Amino acid sequence: MTDDSKQKDQATRAAVLTSVEERSQDTTGTGRVRGKVCIVTGVGPAAGIGAQAARLLAREGAAALYLLDVSRDLPAFAKSLQSTFPNTKITAITGDAADDAVVSSAVQRALDETGRLDVYFANAGISHLKPKAEEGGPPQLILDVISGTRTAQDISAAEFSEVMRINALSVFLALKYAVPAMQRTSEDKKIPQGSVISTASVAGVNANGGPLPYSATKAAVINMTKSAAYEVAGKNVRINCICPGLIRTDMTKTIFELAAMAGVDENVGQLNPLQRHGLPEEIGQAVLWLASDESSYVNGHALVVDGGLTASMPYIPGASDKIKELAKF
């Protein structure tokens, strides 16, 4: 690949990312989830997948949104969202999405206040327990990198259990409480119906997508999705999950910060055919589709949104160009 061609490709990737970000700022919806009542967990970081999904659901006409997270910033985000989309009732619930009492209470609150529940997006999750930087020790950035590359021998059973609790138990609780609630009918909901959506990962599909505990939990989410779809057969409640590739979020910011420090930030995410990383808005669009009636026949499915990363055997950008050069020999 020539330098000129490489620069053009980089310019294209930058333009695409800018276009995605600009579209995400649009506040005009078309009513794709009009009247639906939704619960979204993992809405902590304002630039994260949960927050972007919540914004899209509000934009597209959700009657009510219940946002659940442990973050102290949640009320401020909810207030901002309510200001932008006044026709959607926004409720912030500060709590643990992997806590039985918190989840059952949130679901019951939605039923008590609106009479229905249509969408539950189980997005809460962590990749590892964040180490605490100590004075005179390695900077937080380096500690995060080390924590994300440890082997099973370096990880305590307690940490494995906590990652499993947050990532997998939270999805189990979503299924436990949301599915029965979605079967409830009311004057404005004549037939039982609902959509439970969970955030899995390509790390749950193939190896080397994340730390071992994280990968194990995401594989569990994928299996729970498929198993639960059959558990609720005939109930008109759909169970699906999304498997994001490399997305620029608070969870992956270390990768982007290190790449920027090394001056190779434009190379992040180039191992897929689109040769770029993804943005939370792009996962939010997948959530919106699964939440809407447009996906009414999609069930028990792990939707991969990764730029094509898992579509092939390992791919090295520019390899075909090298082969062509050798062919001229």
Automatic annotation (TrEMBL):
InterPro entries: NAD(P)-bd_dom_sf, SDR_fam. Transmembrane segments: none annotated. SUPFAM superfamilies: NAD(P)-binding Rossmann-fold domains (SSF51735). Residues 1-11 have a biased composition (Basic and acidic residues). GO terms for molecular function: oxidoreductase activity. It comes from the Eukaryota. Keywords: Oxidoreductase. Residues 1-29 are annotated as: Disordered. CDD domains: SDR_c. PANTHER family: 3-OXOACYL-(ACYL-CARRIER-PROTEIN) REDUCTASE (AFU_ORTHOLOGUE AFUA_6G11210), SHORT-CHAIN DEHYDROGENASE_REDUCTASE FAMILY PROTEIN. Belongs to the short-chain dehydrogenases/reductases (SDR) family. This is 2,4-dienoyl-CoA reductase (NADPH). It comes from Trichosporon asahii var. asahii (strain CBS 8904). The lineage of its organism: Eukaryota, Fungi, Dikarya, Basidiomycota, Agaricomycotina.
